[in-house]
Amino acid sequence: MDVGADLREELWATAEALADIAAGVSLPLFRAPELRAANKAARGFDPVTQADREAEAAMRAHLARARPRDGILGEELGVEPGESGLTWVLDPIDGTRAFLSGATTWGTLIAVNAGQAPLMGLIDQPYVGERFMGGLGRAAMRRGGVERPLRTRPCAALDEAILYSTFPEIGTPEERAGFEAVRDRARLTRYGFDCYGYALIALGQVDLVIEAGLLAYDVQAPQAVIEAAGGVFTDWRGRPAHGGGRVLAAGDPRLHAAALDLLARVPEAV
């Protein structure tokens, strides 16, 4: 899709408005004693709070006014088809477990796509006041009213890399073995950072994020931000990952190739 200057400006203004709206809902509930969570999972624990649902509802209400012809895909309220060819991909609180436990690694994810890979994406962490933006001519982080460019850092070798993942017990036993093959070669591995780990790749602080079992609303905003900053974002076979599944994000294409060589040995999911 051809996105001219006026549309780019409108899309970014809308995305930032959506992030502000979500923050207005989520921040009063963050670390609040009245916050409660329900469990969406039949097995295990997959929490959802009133902040998740109310933030997404508020973002959708704004889109109904500002961009009524666009489609929406959201974690909590599903799919709403559109007519414009553009779809907003929303995750009101990526990292609900972190949100529920008072940690600051959660964020609001907002992306726009035209049917394939995301055109643009935004990762917002309103409690610490950091907003990461990528795509349609932007690659920047804003904090305290000051913007700085986003750029991944060079790191060619696994033994020099910092690796992040949300869960140490990643995916299936086969997926876990593939992840551990990379982990065992990395310089440092950290867990539990949700979308914030992807933002740190774009900021040039982290080199790799490896995850499995993700969905489109988990990945499209991080993908846009990382690619705009010079990084690589694929599945474990080097294919497009905008639909979710197994994700390999790297700041340096050489490091991506090294990790991919190990992860590509993991059998395809049945």
Automatic annotation (TrEMBL):
Mg(2+) 1 binds at E75, D91, D94, D218. CDD domains: Bacterial_IMPase_like_1 (cd01641). GO terms for biological process: L-histidine biosynthetic process. Signal peptide: none annotated. Keywords: Amino-acid biosynthesis, Histidine biosynthesis, Hydrolase, Magnesium, Metal-binding. Pathway: Amino-acid biosynthesis; L-histidine biosynthesis; L-histidine from 5-phospho-alpha-D-ribose 1-diphosphate: step 8/9. Coiled coil: none annotated. Pfam families: Inositol_P. Its cofactor is Mg(2+). The keyword Magnesium applies. It comes from the Bacteria. PANTHER family: 3'(2'),5'-BISPHOSPHATE NUCLEOTIDASE, PHOSPHATASE. This is Histidinol-phosphatase.
